[in-house]
Amino acid sequence: FKLPSDSFKYLGWCDIEEHDVQGNQLHCPRVREGPSEEEQFFRGEEHTLKKRKQVTDTEKWQKKLQENWENCAELNLSFQDLGDLYQLENFKRILQRLIRVEKLWLVDNSLTDLSALRLPRCRELNVSKNHFTSFKQLPKIPQIQHLSLAENNIMTLSGISDFRHTPLESLILKRNPCEFQERYRQVVFSSLPNLKMLDGIPKLPEDCSPPDIRAFFKMCTIL
What we know:
The protein is of the alpha/beta class. The protein has a domain at 72-207: Alpha-Beta Horseshoe (Leucine-rich repeat, LRR (right-handed beta-alpha superhelix)). The chain has helices spanning 37-43, 46-66, 85-96, 184-191, 211-217, and strands spanning 74-76, 103-105, 124-126, 146-148, 170-172, 197-198, 201-202. A 7-stranded mixed β-sheet has the order 1-2-3-4-5-6-7, covered by helices on one side. It comes from Aptenodytes forsteri (Emperor penguin).
């Protein structure tokens, strides 16, 4: 008579060389060694084996492409919901491999510090809606041209001069506490001579006035 496992006969086979699974932990009807290729040939099942191998090779290649982070030029890793520490560590491990990325979006990931990372080819970086409190917490991005830091918690403009020697042209700091700093636009443009646009507004003539000169005109002398 047929066993209950007959319906699973030769459904799929895999080699398990080393494992620590006990017999009472198995939930499949039967675990046994599959038929040899010679036996399948005489049974007329050789084509099934070849087809299964082709699918497996294709899946392996696709998986390899998915894990090939080093060659990514544009990547969107926003809204990852990094709730646990191990998720954040694994996320940073992926970011460390982005040595060729040119455009990167990391929006709303609750990130606080990426200073240990280096993105040598990154020209466009969007880290809006995170928890950065300082420019020092950003990754090293020597080729950056467009940077968005909207809706973070950057308190002061201290450290912004670190981008002075980069080709930074566009910067977005909307909805950060530093936006309310006195002479905000003048300080930013004086610190970044190459900057052309701040918060979506092009550089204006009044933005070029040194902060100390504008403060001088506001002085009032009482005799």
